[in-house]
Design a protein that fits this description.
It is built from one helix and 13 strands. The chain has 194 residues and is mostly beta strands. Helices cover 8% and strands 73% of the residues. Strands 3, 4, 5, 6, 7, 8, 9, 10, 11, 12 and 13 form an eleven-stranded antiparallel beta sheet that branches. The protein has a two-stranded antiparallel ribbon with strand order 1-2.
Length: 194
């Protein structure tokens, strides 16, 4: 259950982060780094989680972008820490539904590894999501999305949202949050768009 909750924490932000925006249009080319803090359900008890990660996206077509994300984290279970490593690689179809408003449908292969005092485990799976990105002004962007993650013989659904402040054409900062049955988190990322 810890593994499923952690993947929800880390992957929930990916669909919304799988696209970058400029001052006058939505763009899909970026590199970013971020941190996340949250809680994961561990056999009925909430335990703390912290993580860091890096992600990137490359628009290969007007309506498609490739993306990848690598994250590492630590879960404080009270019985020793669980170290985590996650990798997501996928494609993010995106289609305009209004001026500077896109629907995004990210699909990814997921890999995760967990190490603790009791052993280690790794698995591969997939995620699929649907979300909306809206550039409200040259300085502000908002996103919201739903995601389904299937890995480690289980699945989980989450909802996530973020607000991004575009400092200039190249740099932006986002504050986001995600929520599922097994986990909740807040995160902060810094993005370089190109």
């Amino acid at each position: 259950k810890i593994r499923k909750g952690l993947l929800t924490l880390l992957a929930a932000g990916l669909p919304l982060s799988a696209a970058a925006a400029g001052p006058d249009e939505l763009r899909y080319d970026y590199l970013e780094v971020g941190v996340a803090f949250g809680e994961v359900d561990s056999v009925g008890d909430d335990v703390d989680f912290t993580g860091i990660g890096a992600a990137g996206s490359w628009g290969i077509h007007d309506n498609f972008a490739l993306f990848a994300a690598l994250g590492t984290g630590e879960i404080d279970t009270g019985f020793g820490d669980v170290d985590t490593t996650e990798l997501s690689v996928g494609i993010n179809p995106h289609f305009p539904i209004a001026n500077n408003v896109d629907i995004v449908i990210p699909v990814a292969l997921e890999w995760a590894d967990f190490d603790s005092n009791f052993g280690s485990d790794d698995d591969t799976g997939y995620s699929i999501g649907i979300g909306i990105r809206a550039l409200l002004s040259p300085s502000w962007e908002m996103g919201v999305g739903l995601q389904h993650v299937d890995i480690f013989d289980g699945d989980d659904q989450s909802i996530a949202g973020n607000v991004r402040w575009h400092i200039n054409d190249l740099f932006s900062v986002a504050l986001g949050a995600s929520l599922s049955d097994d986990a909740s988190s807040v995160g902060l990322d810094v993005r370089f768009s190109f």
